[in-house]
Automatic annotation (TrEMBL):
PANTHER family per record: D-AMINOACYL-TRNA DEACYLASE
Species assigned in the record: Micromonospora parva
Swiss-Prot/TrEMBL keywords: Hydrolase, Metal-binding
Stored Gene3D superfamilies: Metal-dependent hydrolases
Ranges for region Disordered: 1-32
Group of enzyme by EC: hydrolase
Enzyme Commission numbers on file: 3.1.-.-
Full protein name: TatD family hydrolase
């Protein structure tokens, strides 16, 4: 969840007010349905609302708008105890939604009782529609040296939870590529590992692919400055590729800076098809099958 943790100068409340009602128009529908492998419905609704304005059931509206353009499954991702509990409850209510639960790496150093928070996460991990442990990992952009021990302790604990409950591990990695691999190699990775919002170059992608990890690409792959990221995508096998929004952040071009939501996934999928030279229909089919293999069945 990169933009949330980068804390721009304007407050979250000001940012929500600026973004209200500014959702981009719906893109052309995909030829075959895919999933949004990483979204934050709770933050999207609270900061930006939903396309079309206020609604009695904003989650249902977000799902319906996405489904119309070929995004029929969503993975709601937790970043602390409260959002993880909300996500697990939301997945129980909406058949199109599955959940992951975790403490974000920047959350771990802030907690007065990390062990108690981890116990809460583990209790949620046992629920059927919680299919992943994440986003967890390491973030050296926002947290300095003084917080890294707590981050690493938390990351190792999340890896253990994922293995105990046979859940997919969803990793947040910001400026910490080598340490993420070091810890995964040291602990022994779970059977399914997703590098959320993959941010590395081709060399890091090769290391992840070699280990069998999944690389999930967000709207950043459409940015003009993201040449290295597109090179990483170009060498990623389609059966190790996922696509995500990280909504309400990282909106794909040409709408960068406006609020993101699952219905904008087609923009990123089409960019990946162009980058990889894949047939769009075949790429959608591969992403869909990988999502079901990693998180499903819905």
């Amino acid at each position: 969840m990169l933009s949330l943790m980068s804390e721009p100068r304007e407050s979250r409340r000001d940012r929500a007010a600026r973004r209200a009602g500014e959702f981009p128009p719906a893109p052309e529908s995909l030829p075959r349905a895919v999933l949004d492998s990483h979204t934050h419905l709770d933050i999207t609704v609270s900061e930006a609302g939903v396309p079309g304005g206020p609604a009695d059931d904003p989650v249902a509206v977000a799902i319906a708008v996405a489904t119309k353009v070929g995004v029929d499954r969503l993975v709601q991702v937790g970043v602390d105890v409260a959002s993880s509990r909300w996500g697990a409850d939301t997945a129980d209510r909406y058949p199109a939604v599955l959940a992951t639960v975790a403490l974000h790496p920047n959350e771990a150093p802030r907690l007065s009782d990390l062990d108690e928070a981890l116990r809460e996460i583990e209790s949620l991990a046992a629920r059927d529609r919680v299919r992943g442990i994440g986003e967890t990992g390491m973030d050296f952009f926002r947290t300095g040296d003084e917080g890294r021990a707590a981050q690493e302790e938390s990351f190792r604990a999340h890896i253990a939870i994922a293995k105990r409950y046979d859940k997919t591990l969803v990793i947040h990695d910001r400026d910490a590529h080598a340490d993420v691999l070091r810890i995964l190699d040291d602990e022994g990775a779970p059977d399914r590992v997703v590098l959320h919002c993959f941010s590395g170059d081709a060399d890091f992608a090769r290391e992840c692919v070699r280990r069998g990890y999944l690389l999930s690409f967000a709207g950043t792959v459409t940015f003009g400055s993201a040449t290295a990221l597109r090179e990483a995508a170009a060498l990623t096998p389609v059966d190790q590729m996922l696509v995500e929004t990280d909504a309400p952040y990282l909106t794909p071009m040409p709408y960068r800076g406006r609020p993101n939501a699952s219905y904008l996934i087609p923009l990123t999928v089409r960019a990946l098809a162009a980058t990889t030279g894949s047939d769009l229909d075949e790429l959608c089919a591969a992403i869909s099958a990988t999502g079901d293999r990693v998180f499903g069945p819905w």
